[in-house]
Design a protein that fits this description.
Length: about 120
């Protein structure tokens, strides 16, 4: 990646383990896609009612050459997202699905152009 991953924590304490896992996920995506020109990840723990529990949210914004931005802004209500690692896994899984669609579309466009 041309620039380092920007990681920030809002409403929760910084975690070296979460930061390391984010960097590993970005590296894995780079291996699949190629070049990521920028990546910003925000880990949030919004204030909520104690009866409902606190759910982690991940906002991921990646800039890719030729594809623009891939964005994941998790505002779901999945109770499993009380665990930061589950929320992180789900957020990056959603980003990977978006990337696979972009790569698949590009391959289809290239096949049509060469035919």
């Amino acid at each position: 990646m041309l620039l380092p991953v920007q990681i920030s924590f809002h409403g929760c304490d910084h975690s070296d383990a979460v930061e390391s896992e984010i960097k590993e996920r970005v590296t894995k995506i780079e291996e699949f896609y190629g070049r990521i020109t920028s990546c910003r990840v925000v880990v949030e723990l919004p204030h909520r009612s104690h009866a409902q529990g606190k759910l982690f949210h991940f906002n991921i914004d990646m800039t890719l050459p030729g594809a623009g931005h891939v964005v994941h802004n998790d505002r779901g209500q999945n109770p499993a997202h009380e665990d930061v690692h589950v929320a992180l896994r789900d957020a990056f899984t959603a980003v990977e699905k978006q990337l696979k669609k972009i790569v698949g579309k590009r391959r289809d466009d290239e096949r049509k152009a060469s035919a």
